[in-house]
Amino acid sequence: MARLTFADFVREQWSEIPPVATADLAGKTVMVIGANTGLGFEASKHFARMNPKRLIMACRNHEKGEAAVEKLRSETGFEPVELWIIDLAKFSSVSEFASKFEKDGGRLDILVQNAAAAPSIRQETSDGWENAIQVNNLSLPLLALLLLPRMMQTGREHGTTSRLVVVTSEMHYWGKIENEVIESGDIFGTLSSEKYCTPKVMASRYHDSKLLNVFFLRGLNDRLPRTPGTIIVNGVNPGYCYSELRRDLSGIRAAVNWIMEYLLAHTTEEGSRQLVWAAVGGAEEGEELRGAYISCSEVREVSDFVLTKDGMIAQDAIWDDMVKILVKIDPRVQKTIDEYLTSGART
């Protein structure tokens, strides 16, 4: 399904959610970003029941994170859970988080990038970027590229396949990045600018940011060496779920959201099963999981635009612009690209 109609959306929301995938995670390290609430917390509980050696719950707020850790322990009986603090609205926090993990010296088998921002108006971070662009489309790729060496080393040293899961959305089917933005030579700067972020643009900012997520995971997959095992990068759609992501909505949009949730939303736990499937499920699919978009616990086709020649051109332009920005933020990104990735040529 390369297009998503509203009827398709409703049909998927009313479909039965498969049971949660399970795996033996003994000896492994699992990290969940945005783990103190919603999908991230429910996914963390599922992982805890699979007995990993370490479960790292990465959260922005220390107090809320501590409460989530204690709640997880009480509900699962799992003790080796750690709270790590990261604020994706601050590049310095992302770099410090990655540096801490470098010094930690441990393995990293599963990284679930669940955190996201869904603003309805333009809000600027302390780094000078529109909040959703920084959180969803710059900070998460920055973290992924800084942790990628450890994940690939884990796969090689232990004869396993690490998994990097980017949480995206079916909303990417309705996202759009205009040609003039792609051809501007400053894609993210344009998307983030006050001039560009009109009320109309911000009304669809979440959709567009999820499309950018898809471009990122596919761009990264294209550049991973074609050796068996080591690491799989994929993206997953949890579906439309009850979520705090939309907690800042007001007025008509809040009312419409309330009605939509009442009629269509999955529970947060049901949505979290999709994150878990992307992280540990689908072993029979093997190579098909690489760069895949996952929805309803199966590999699905991404939007038509992503697959077109223009979409592929956009994907490469977005990758190049993103790397240019991230290398300036943290030079270690260049080292990852030079030592662990290829040119990205499609074969």
From TrEMBL:
InterPro entries the record matches: NAD(P)-bd_dom_sf, SDR_fam
SUPFAM superfamilies registered for this protein in UniProt: NAD(P)-binding Rossmann-fold domains
Keyword Oxidoreductase appears in the UniProt entry: yes
Molecular function terms, GO-annotated: oxidoreductase activity
Pfam families, A to Z: adh_short
Annotated keywords: Oxidoreductase
PANTHER family with a match to the protein in the record: PHOSPHATIDYLINOSITOL-GLYCAN BIOSYNTHESIS CLASS F PROTEIN (PTHR43157:SF31), PHOSPHATIDYLINOSITOL-GLYCAN BIOSYNTHESIS CLASS F PROTEIN-RELATED (PTHR43157)
Protein name, per record: Short-chain dehydrogenase
Lineage: Eukaryota, Fungi, Dikarya, Basidiomycota, Agaricomycotina
